[in-house]
Amino acid sequence: MRFHLPFAFFIIILYIVSTNSKLIDGEYNPPTPSPAPEPHPDDESSISCDDDLGGVGSLDSTCKLVADLNLTRDCYISGKGNLHVLPGVRLVCKFPGCSVTVNISGNFSLAENSTVIAGAFRLAAENADFATGSTVDTTGLGGEPPEEASGTPEGVEGAGGGYGGRGACCLTDTTTKLPEDVWGGDVYGWSSLEKPEVYGSRGGSTSSEVDYGGGGGGKVAMEVVGCVGLNGSVLADGASGGVKGGGGSGGSIFVMAHKMAGIGRISASGGDGYAGGGGGRVSVHIFSRHSDPKIFVHGGSSFGCQENAGAAGTLFDAISESLTIDNENKTTYTDTLLLEFSYHRLFTNLYIQNMAKVDVPLRWSRVQVQGSISLSNGGELSFGLPRYASSEFELFAEELLMSNSAIKVFGALRMNVKVFLMLKSRMFIDGGGVTILGTSMLEISNLLVLKESSVIQSNGNLGVHGQGLLNLTGTGDTIEAQRLILSLFYSIQVGAGAVLRGPLQNASTGGLAPKLYCQRDDCPVELLHPPEDCNVNSSLPFTLQICRVEDITVEGLIKGSVVHFHLARTVVVRSSGIITADGMGCKGGVGTGRFLRSGVGSGGGHGGRGGSGCYNRTCIEGGDSYGNVDLPCELGSGSGNEESKDSVAGGGIIVIGSLEHPLSSLSLEGSITTDGESPRKTLKAISNSSLGPGGGSGGTVLFFLRTLDIARSAILSSIGGNGSLKGGGGGSGGRIHFHWSDIPTGDVYHHIAKVEGRVYVRGGLGASEDNVGEAGTLTGKACPQGLYGLYCEECPAGTYKNVTGSDKALCHLCPAREIPHRAVYVTVRGGVAETPCPYQCVSDRYHMPHCYTRLEELIYTFGGPWLFGILLVVVLLLLALVFSVARMKFVGGEEAHGAATTHHGSQIDHSFPFLESLNEVMETSRVEESQGHMHRIYFLGPNTFSEPWHLSHTPPEEIKEIVYEAAFNGFVDEINAIAAYQWWEGAVYIVLSVLVYPLAWSWQQSRRRLKFQKLRDFVRSEYDHSCLRSCRSRALYEGLKVAASPDLMLAHLDFFLGGDEKRNDLPPPVHQRLPMPLVFGGDGSYMAYYSLQSDEILTSLLSQVVSPTTWYRFVAGLNAQLRLVQQGKLRSTFRSVMRWIETHGNPALRRHGVRVDLARFQASPSSSCQYGILVHTIADEVASPRYVDETEQQHPWGVQIDDIRENLHFTQYQSSSIIDIGSLQFLKEEKDVLSLISFLIHNTKPVGHQDLVGLVISVLLLGDVTLMLLTLLQLYSISMLDVFLALFVLPLSIIFPFPAGVSALFSHGPRRSAERTRVYALWNLTSLVNVLVAFVCGYIHYHGSSAGKKIPYLQPWNISMDENEWWIFPVALLLCKVLQSQLVNWHVANLEIQDYSLYSDDSELFWQS
After folding, report:
1. Among candidates 438, 450, 553, which has minimal Cα distance to 492?
2. CA nearest 692: which of 651, 641, 633, 736?
3. Residue 1361: other Cβ atoms inside 10 A
4. Which residues make Cβ contacts (< 8 Å) with residue 289, sequence separation at least 6?
5. CA atoms within 13 A on the CB side of 1015
6. Are residues 89 and 66 in contact, defined by beta-carbon separation less than 8 angstroms?
7. Could you point out which of 107, 775, 1019, 1317 has its C-alpha 20 to 30 Å from the C-alpha of 708?
8. What residues form DSSP beta bridges with 259?
9. What is the Cα–Cα distance from 519 to 994, expressed in whole angstroms?
10. CB-based burial of residue 105 (10 Å sphere; 0-12 exposed, 13-18 middle, 19+ buried)?
11. Spatial contact of 1157 and 1181, defined as CB atoms under 8 Å apart
């Protein structure tokens, strides 16, 4: 922390108050006046007020002096009353030593402009009042001083008289004496300091015949019981001596009272003269002061030497026990002497101010005060005599405060204070060169602060000890000595521009202690094992030591020859801070340079040899290398020829820490240097000097540290000095050594050094490259195992070190065979001391210790890839067998039962999943309904969200006779409203189609099923059948039936007679209804292939012309062919249907007088078209492609049905046409998502071997889920993000194929199993997107990221190629799903087509089956 001066002064004030608590604690009793002065034997004791004094009244009551009174002898006035001197009245006794005494029991007053003039004035009264303009004047009227006093100067120098301070003496001969060596009258009366009662001394004269000297001041003593009101003047000044005589010294003034107030003046100053007189002495015993009068004790001005006024006198305050010496800013060389200080009763404070000059002249003197010593405004305190520094002095105080002042000590000083504050001040200690007495000790227990160029300087040994803060705040603040020891502070702060120096800057190094070590090539033991007492010891090599200090902050300069930091905790050198011993070493030394006869010298040696000196091709070797590399502590060597002024010195020594007590932390932002010195004329091309010396060698920097931080801006150097341009050699570099202490190892290791700055030990430059000095040494303590280098860093990754040492070569490479190929060696805290070396996997996706992925860990847990693969295949086969057996047990009985019920003559061939209507499923089929069947209307639209089912408002001709047209239109509106979808249903479908198509299909089917159920419920029970003319139908809610195909894409509305029409022509026979359109259900997609619905009503109607067995067989064969029609490939797939109709269907139907043709139906140009067949009789046969008459008009859609519309009684389509071979090319191909990948998922012919196909599907299904899990595990080894992408693009599609496949395989019944198998196929197909995402993630990771990113420290001899096999599982999963798609196609065909003869090319075989 940094203390500031204002805060320090605040502490001082508190301390002063606390140490003088007796002033405020109420324990003080006001002084008791001394007894009334005894009358002089010659005095008359019965002086009366009116007769003798010319006054009015009585001294026993009140006496008033109303007229001037001139006295010719001493006067003693006494009485029990009051004495008042009225305004303007003068009481005068003008002969020297004349005494006027007033001793009354009442009050005394001196009115305005009244005066008392005498040599001595004594007053004893109850109260006293001195009005404005009143004067008690004893100036120059002093009597004879004591006989033993020497206050009156002798001779004719015109010196001033002395008393409280010495009189000045104007020195005319300055050749033999200095101004401060001479003075006028001397001081006396020190013993009566508290109650001065002697006269001042007369000044000297410049003439032996005439005494021109001014008289000394008189004496005034006032002892007042009560209050003194002082607005006038009380004077005891010395008289002026003019220009021919010295001024008299001030006299004595003693004031004692309980209280004093006023703005008057008290003065015992020296008189002016040729040389000023010294000040007198003033003592005040006042308990309470209010608006203090001004008190002056300054010396008189000197007309003969204006810069040397008389010395100040003394002002003693008995209450605060403070001594003030104030010269009122009069410059002087003359001292005020402080003689013996009382030790049984200490002064509280000592104030030296306003140019006062105070001297403690006696040998072995002590200045001791209880409070503070304050020097301010030019005040000066001197100890001893100049040029006679043969004594020790002591200074004891609580605080020593200096502001623009000085302390000079001639000898040695022992100082002990708590607070020492310096502001623009200087302390100089002149030890006189005496070693024994040259050691000064400054003990500052709390705070030492220097501000604004304050200086503490000693030309001897100086120890500064403390327990608090030492703060050199800024520029110019300096502490320097020949040997400087700073110790025991908890913090030392050297501010920017401040200086700590030892030895002195201009001192000759010849007399310094380091000279004793210049011829030694070994290390002084004190540098490695310094004493711990931190005392100043002249036998030690240190010139500047900082000892037992917690924290040291350097922003300024610390310079010395041998600098030592001992028992410190932290040292911080800021960017402006410098610790240096540049050029502070030896001018000679062990490695001193050598000289040629020409005067050209070589460089000094130390850490290496000095550069050779050359002149005219004659060279001389540089200084030798010397010292200990591992623990250096030698001074640098110089150029030699020590007596020459051109010789240069080597660098000094800087030691931070010690072997027993290393420094905890060093932070270096500035510089620490011990560079060798360069000749002053190195840079000049032409030198007038006859010598060309070489440079000095660098010194030594020795660190005993725990941690080090060298910032980027820092410089640490021990550089050799440059040689002279005449050919001098450069000095060698010095030595820098880091002796680390307690180097942490293992898990507790931390970096002990952070070095970003510059470290130099290079040699100095010479006149040429051949003259450059050798580099020095930069060494460190041998590092423990695992660490290497100068700063004991961890050995590089992949190396280990099992021996002690610092060489990097000791860090051996770790064995390559001990590390997995996906691992890299890593550094560990404390380095690697033994093998095996620690390593880590190159990525988080690999796991220790073998750096396998999760998948590889699983694989190698079961013996490796081959064994794992074989084991996986075996497990899958076994599970598939178990799966198949369980499936056969679960569903085998029902399938066998379904297959056994196939009969050729049955009405329903269960070997084929023909399309039942929901009417047939949900209600009992009644043949009698077909007898009353009137007409069937097909709903328009494929029942999608964009085109729902709807009916046309115009009733067909076939039902106009049985319905009311208006009511029918209302019925159609209600039907269309029920069949319409909400917007959100389509939105949900779109979203699901993008994300999860199988769910979209399930959603659409569920909404279709809900719509049909609503339509069916509406027609069956909610609608009142009001559109029908039959009363019976309306009453029984009969006559209308709604049915739909199983895929819910085709629906129709059947109209029936009510039975009360009473018309024999209704319903019409079937031959009157032909040609009859039969529309296919489905849309040709994988999930809804085209199929012809053949319900009981339709079969019953057609049985009038075709036998039911023939019609059932025809429908079964047609539906088998329609299964193979693919949306998007209608032109090619309808061709096989048309061929089958011509080759298998029509030949058998023609025997019954009917034929069928493939037809296209479209209600309006904007609506979707529907496909179906047209059943008509041979008589109504429309020309087929094989029988087209060339004279008939051809249409792009084939033969138009419009020409025979009047014979069509069963259609509501505006555009209908028969599709022939020529019109296939005009069919509009509509493709959906599944049609784009129809090569994977499509309807195919059955292949048989249903159990085998199921078994293979079981194997593939189990393989699918296994490969899926392995792929996800592989992605998990990369990152969770890749797993997330593979799972949710598309959402969870990669997971659902397995549960969908299990559900399909274990479904009851061929129809349900086929439906669920198709859903399973959709999930399998959708999951291909997830597999593709997994593949892309793997590719990006293994190729994209690794292509431009190299693994650090990866040993090239351990790289394996199995990283390139990442694609195996995604590709295997893809192939598994493709195989599943094909097998599922076969499985669906086997389930739906169990009569394989339906696909027979032989029509005879087809009809015979």
Report:
1. 553
2. 641
3. 7
4. 259, 260, 261
5. 33
6. yes
7. 775
8. 227, 288
9. 95
10. middle
11. no
The CA distance from 400 to 372, in Å, is 6
* Chain segment 195-244, per-residue pLDDT in tens: 999 999 999 998 888 889 999 999 999 999 999 999 999 999 999 999 99
Residue 930 Cα distances to 922, 935, 1055, 1374, angstroms: 17, 10, 10, 53
From CA 999, how far away is CA 984, in angstroms rounded?
16
Could you tell me which of 1132, 1113, 1107, 1080 has the C-alpha nearest to residue 1403? 1113
φ, ψ for residue 668, nearest 5 deg = -115, 115
In terms of C-beta density within 10 A (0-12 exposed, 13-18 middle, 19 or more buried), how is residue 671 classed? Answer: buried
**1107 Cβ neighbours under 8 A, 6+ residues apart:** 1152
Structure tokens at 1010: 């809900």
Structure confidence at residue 921 (pLDDT): 35
Q: What are phi and psi of 495, to 5 degrees?
A: -70, 170
Classify residue 505 as exposed, middle or buried by CB count within 10 Å of its CB (0-12, 13-18, 19+): exposed
Structure tokens that stand for 752 in this block: 């002990």
- To the nearest whole number, what is the mean pLDDT of the chain? 84
Among the listed residues 435, 633, 430, the one whose alpha carbon sits nearest the alpha carbon of residue 530: 633
- Report strand pairing: 1040-1044 vs 322-326: unpaired
Q: Which of 412, 472, 479 is nearest to 447 (CA)?
A: 472
pLDDT tens string 605-656: 999 999 999 888 888 899 999 998 889 989 999 988 877 778 899 999 999 9
Residues 6+ apart with CB under 8 A from 936: 1052, 1053, 1054, 1055, 1097, 1098, 1210
Nearest C-alpha neighbor of 391 from the set 365, 411, 413: 411
Where do the H-state alpha helices sit in 58-141? none
Of 326, 345, 346, 328, the residue nearest 336 (C-alpha)? 326
- Residue identified by tokens 């693994």 is 1351
Pick the closest to residue 1050 from 1006, 1093, 1002, 1017 (CA basis): 1093
- Strands 839-841, 823-825: parallel, antiparallel or unpaired by DSSP? antiparallel
- Range with the poorest average pLDDT among 509-523, 1125-1139, 1375-1389: 509-523
The pair of three-digit structure tokens given for residue 1224, joined into one six-digit string: 């296939």
Q: Which residues share a beta bridge with 754?
A: 709
Q: Locate tokens 């199983």: which residue?
A: 1046
- Indicate the pTM of the whole model: 0.68
Is the sign of the CA dihedral 57, 62, 67, 68 positive or negative?
A: positive
Report the run of H or E that residue 357 belongs to, with start and end: strand 357-360
Per-residue burial over 1146-1173, b = 16 or more CB atoms within 10 Å of its CB, e = otherwise: bebbeebebbbbbbbbbbeeebbbbbbb
User: What whole-number distance in Å separates Cα of residue 282 and Cα of residue 297?
Assistant: 7
Candidates 1002, 1065, 1051, 1054; CA nearest to 1028 is 1054
Instruction: Return d(Cα 1277, Cα 1283) in angstroms, integer.
Output: 9
CB-based burial of residue 748 (10 Å sphere; 0-12 exposed, 13-18 middle, 19+ buried)? exposed
Amino acid making up residue 1213: Y
Strand, coil or helix: 69 = strand
